[in-house]
Amino acid sequence: MWLQFKYFSQNFPLKSLRICKQCCFNLIQIQRNVANRRFHTKHSAIKNVSDSSRKSKSANKSDVKRLLLLMKPEKWKLTGAICLLFISSTITMFVPFALGRVIDVIYTKDSDKMRDNLNKLCLSLTLIFVVGAICNFGRVYLINLSGQRITKSLRENVFKSILSQETAFFDKHRTGELINRLSADTAVVSQSVTMNISDGLRSGIMVLTGVSMMFYMSPKLAIVGLIVVPPVACLAILYGRFVRKITKSVQDTLADATNVAEERIGNIRTVKSFSQENSEIQRYVSKIESVLKLAKKECLARGIFYGMTGFSGNVIILSILYYGGVMVSENNISVGNLSAFLLYAAYIGVSIGGLSSFYSEMNRGLGASSRLWELIDRVPQISISGGLIPTHEVRGDIIFKNIIFSYPSRPQHIILNSLYLILPSGTTTAVVGASGSGKSTLAALLLRLYDPESGEVLLDKTPVRDYDPVWLRKNIGIVSQEPVLFSGTIRENIIYGIINPEDVCDDSIYKAAKEANALDFILGFPEKFNTKVGEKGVMLSGGQKQRIAIARALIKNPKILLLDEATSALDGESEHLVQEALHRIFKGRTVLIIAHRLSTIKNADKIAVIENGKIVEIDSYNELITKEGPFKNLIKHQTMFS
Fold first, then answer.
1. Gap between the Cα atoms of 361 and 358, Å rounded
2. Coil, helix or strand at residue 432
């Protein structure tokens, strides 16, 4: 690069030399930025590889710990539920022993004594069962209530983290994927730490109690019956690990399917306009097919596991029946105790199945939780609050100083290249250029939706990155080409940009609507300001939506106004009404117009032409139209209206 510069210095005059020198330095700067990005990318990749093994070892413990910490806010409800669980489980495991006593009573030879003992025993058991039912009700109620509260808290944290991320985050993550994390994954995680743990504890208590009672009644018979349990336990561990891995894949694939559904339903008018219903149905079906393929693997593993556990349970019962029958014939055990023993064996078989379900569901929760922790723990690169809040009023002097910028999703594509532009306070500046030249990027940088890679955006001589984002955006009103309205009322959409909407009086809303030329059509609706606009404002015309967007920008009384091709999609009559409203509100404000139509820019104080990421021409309309240059070429070829 330096040799090229020396060659030009020897063969071209001083003026050309200065231009070339600046170009060289610009190219060097760009190459440095690209090289830095590549270095950091490569360094991050190497670091990720070296850290992956260490992280994978601690991930399991960390995930389990974080899952259990979700239970902390509900500790008293869960403690009460666990106490009730112990009582109900103890009563449940008392049933086989009690039935054994009933059978022994029935086999009593004295019929009068047998009937008297049977009445007392059954009455006592009825009272005990009533207490067990009440405890079971309390356990289920408290556990489910805690689960719903944990789900609510988890969804709040996930949603808060999603909305706190910088704009570049949403360039890389699809809406459907995030919605799936917010809805499906949170439900799986909360279920795994509430009802699942409750059922797991219940199964564990029943297994321990049942095994203890079996050894109490007959150690020999217990050993014979439980000899197949260790292999089943090993099978359960392997099955749980498989479920955890496949759950992650299922959740990711389901997120893809949800994204397709959300995007197509949200743009249903476009789908229908191009008659793409069948193709979109097929697209969604193919995504769901991928989910089904993974689910088939899980079903196969589940079938094998439960088939083996069912077989092992039957083997246990058969072994006990055979060996127990021999012991009864030798008078080593009574018929009642053998019956109780068989019931305990059945309870243990069911409980082992419950433990395996608990283990697999816990692994499902761990699989789903890993994605949630990524969202919750992610620190946004641009904070939603914090920074300088000036006490004086904004003047509105704006400088884009040597801006170099490329979107994070396309780091190799430089959008703005050493751009320099001054917007004096109280003036109107229009920026024109071909599509993709970086016009709208200027508005995004001023709002600090993105930060430049090099250079600074200054507001009143202070970089916008130093200001509190809430304060900064409070002083900037924006009207975009496609204004987005939410599916509420007109009033709710107008006051959307106000930090404390409850403090807004009706007079302010009427004034903003009147200045935006929206009051007449609003009052023409039967419900006036309480009229529902529909999803994305579909119940309003383009001109009506645009004027409500202008009112939404005006009600903040901003010192700075951004118009991002605000009239490009309007018909002539609507454009006239919008233009009339816009020119009335320009006075006393710093206005940046991302131009689309000649009628929008001809009255601007300055018109800046952007080309290849730089301002190549800037002057008033009357001056630019009289000389050959980029601006006149844009008008001549109509490229500025794209």
1. 5
2. strand
What is the per-residue pLDDT for 53? 42
398-641: what fold? Answer: Rossmann fold (3.40.50)
Tens digits of per-residue pLDDT, 76-121? 888 888 888 888 888 887 777 777 777 777 766 666 677 777 777 7
Q: Are 404 and 30 in contact (CB under 8 A)?
A: yes
Q: What is the dihedral of CA 249, 251, 253, 257, to 10 degrees?
A: 170
CA atoms within 13 Å, Cβ hemisphere of 444: 18
How many angstroms separate the CA atoms of 220 and 199, rounded?
A: 30
* Confidence band for 48, pLDDT divided at 50, 70 and 90: very low
Alpha carbons 81 and 522: distance in angstroms, whole number? 55
Whether pTM > 0.90 for this model: the answer is no
CB proximity list for 159: less than 8 A, separation 6 or greater = 182
The two tokens of residue 32 are 């440095």
Name 503's Cβ contacts closer than 8 Å, sequence gap at least 6.
Answer: none
Q: What is the pLDDT of residue 400?
A: 93
* CATH no. of 145-377: 1.20.1560.10
Degrees to nearest 5, angle at CA 633 with 627 and 639: 150
User: Running DSSP on this structure, what letter comes out for residue 532?
Assistant: B
Task: Please tell me which of 114-128, 267-281, 569-583 the model is most confident about, judged by mean pLDDT.
Answer: 114-128
Cβ-based neighbours of 283, under 8 Å, separated by 6 or more: 260, 264
Please state the domain extents for the chain.
1-39, 145-377, 398-641
Q: What is the 3-state secondary structure (H, E, C) of 299-315?
A: HHHHHHHHHHHHHHHHH
Q: Are 430 and 590 in contact (CB under 8 A)?
A: no
User: Does 398-641 match 145-377 at the fold level?
Assistant: no
